[in-house]
Write a structure and sequence with these properties.
By secondary structure, the protein is mostly helical. The protein contains 15 helices and four strands. Strands 1-2 form a two-stranded antiparallel sheet. It has a two-stranded antiparallel ribbon with strand order 3-4. It is globular. The relative contact order is 0.12.
C-alpha cells in the first residue's frame, strides 16, 4: 500500500497547493463565472479549477513512474502514456470551453479524439459482460468504438452533475474510493490483470480530496468543464480497465460474473441516472442534449427547500449507499447485507422529503398560491364588470 498512499498524497498535496494559485490566475485573466438565470451561485466565482486537478494528476503520474513498485506498468505497457495523452486532450478541450464557449459538436469531437487515443495506446475494453450471463470478447473493430462511447458517457455524466458546489468532486471521490477497494479485492483473488486502473482510481481520490476544500459551498473556485471532463475520462479509464479486461469469474459468487461491467453504472448511479433523465427531458422539450437547464436532481432538491450544502450531502449519501451495496458482496457471501443499506436508503429518502425546511417551503408555496387566488378573484370580477 505504500506506493498507492504515496500517489494519493502527491495528488492531494499538489491539487491542494496549486488550487489557490490557479484561482488567482483565473481572477486576473477574467476567467470568472457570473451568476445568471441557469446557475445557482449568487456571486462571481473563479473557474479553471480543473487546471489544479490536472497538475495533481501529472505530478502523481510522474511520481508513479519513479516508484519501483510500478516499473512493470510504465516499462512494459503503453497504457500510462495513453492515459496522459487522452487526459491532456480532454483537459484542453474543457479548458478552451471554460475560457470561450465551444460548440457542442466541437466538444464532442474532442472527446472522441481523447477516447481514440486511449484505444490506440491499449486502454480499451476487451470483454463485455452480460448480467446473469457469460461474457464475450470484443472483436478488434468493436473495442475502439466501445472505448470511445465509454469515455463520452462517463465524461458527460460527471459534467452534467457539476452544478452545485462540491457535488461532482464528492461523488467522483466516493466512486474512486469504491473502485480502489473493488480493485484491491480482485487483485487479491488473482482476477485482475496488470493495468493502471487501480492506480488511476487512487490518483482521482487525491485530486478530489485536494480540490474539495476550495469547492465546497460557498465555493471559492469551480472545476469547470476542464475538471469535470478530466475526472470523467479518468474514471472511464479505471472502470474499463478493471471491469473490461478480467475474463474470469469468482467461484462462489455469481456477482462477479457481471459486477465488473455493472459496477460503474451502480457506483456512479447518481450522475448516470441524472444524465439519462436530462437527455429524455430535453428530447421531450425538443431541445439539444447540450442545452443547460435547472431541472437536474440537485436543482430539484434545492426547489424542495434544501440548500446547496444539504443537497450535496444528500447526493453524496446516495452515492455512498450505492457503493456500499455493490461492494459488500465482494467481501462477503452474506445475502442479508442488503438490509442495512436499504435501511440507510430509507433514512436518506425520508430525510430528503420530510426535512423541516421542506415542509416550510411547501407551506410558503401554498400561502403564495392562496394569495394569488385571492388576487385573481377581484381582478376577474373587475374584468366582468368592465365587459358588462
Amino acid at each position: 500500500m505504500t506506493g498507492y498512499l504515496t500517489l494519493l498524497g502527491v495528488a492531494l498535496g499538489t491539487t491542494l497547493l496549486t488550487t489557490p494559485l490557479v484561482r488567482l490566475v483565473a481572477i486576473r485573466i477574467g476567467a470568472v463565472v457570473a451568476p445568471d438565470e441557469r446557475r445557482v451561485h449568487t456571486r462571481p466565482t473563479a473557474t479553471l479549477g480543473g487546471a489544479a486537478m490536472y497538475l495533481g494528476f501529472l505530478a502523481a503520474m510522474f511520481t508513479a513512474s519513479q516508484i519501483d513498485q510500478f516499473n512493470e506498468l510504465f516499462d512494459n505497457t503503453s497504457e500510462p502514456l495513453g492515459v496522459v495523452l487522452g487526459a491532456t486532450i480532454i483537459f484542453f478541450v474543457g479548458l478552451i470551453d471554460d475560457l470561450r464557449e465551444v460548440s457542442a459538436p466541437a466538444k464532442m469531437a474532442g472527446q472522441v479524439l481523447a477516447g481514440s487515443v486511449l484505444s490506440l495506446f491499449g486502454v480499451t475494453m476487451l470483454y463485455f459482460r452480460v448480467p446473469f450471463a457469460d461474457f464475450f470478447s470484443l472483436a478488434p473493430d468493436q473495442a475502439p468504438l466501445i472505448t470511445v462511447l465509454w469515455v463520452i458517457g462517463m465524461a458527460n455524466a460527471v459534467n452534467f452533475i457539476d452544478g452545485l458546489d462540491g457535488l461532482a468532486a464528492g461523488v467522483v471521490g466516493i466512486a474512486a474510493v469504491s473502485f480502489t477497494l473493488y480493485s484491491d479485492r480482485l487483485f487479491e483473488e488473482g482476477l485482475l490483470p496488470t493495468n493502471i486502473g487501480p492506480l488511476l482510481a487512487v490518483i482521482v481520490v487525491g485530486m478530489c480530496a485536494g480540490f474539495l476544500p476550495f469547492n465546497f459551498h460557498p465555493a471559492k473556485i469551480f472545476m469547470g468543464d476542464a475538471g469535470a471532463l478530466l475526472l470523467g475520462l479518468l474514471m472511464a479509464c479505471s472502470t474499463l480497465l478493471v471491469g473490461g479486461t478480467a475474463a474470469d469469474g469468482f467461484s462462489g459468487q455469481t456477482y462477479f460474473f457481471f459486477a465488473p461491467l455493472v459496477i460503474p453504472f451502480v457506483i456512479l448511479g447518481v450522475p448516470i441516472f441524472d444524465t439519462a433523465f436530462a437527455i429524455v427531458r430535453r428530447a421531450k422539450n425538443r431541445a439539444s442534449p447540450a442545452t443547460a437547464d435547472k431541472d437536474h436532481l440537485h436543482h430539484r432538491l434545492m426547489r424542495l427547500g434544501h440548500g446547496q450544502r444539504r443537497s450535496v450531502l444528500i447526493l453524496w449519501a446516495w452515492t455512498a449507499i450505492l457503493s456500499g451495496l455493490v461492494l459488500y458482496p465482494v467481501y462477503t457471501d452474506t445475502g442479508a447485507a442488503v438490509v442495512p443499506f436499504l435501511a440507510a436508503a430509507l433514512v436518506v429518502a425520508l430525510y430528503t422529503v420530510l426535512h423541516p425546511q421542506v415542509r416550510r417551503t411547501r407551506t410558503a408555496e401554498r400561502a403564495v398560491d392562496d394569495d394569488d387566488d385571492q388576487l385573481e378573484l377581484p381582478l376577474a370580477e373587475a374584468d366582468r364588470a368592465s365587459t358588462d
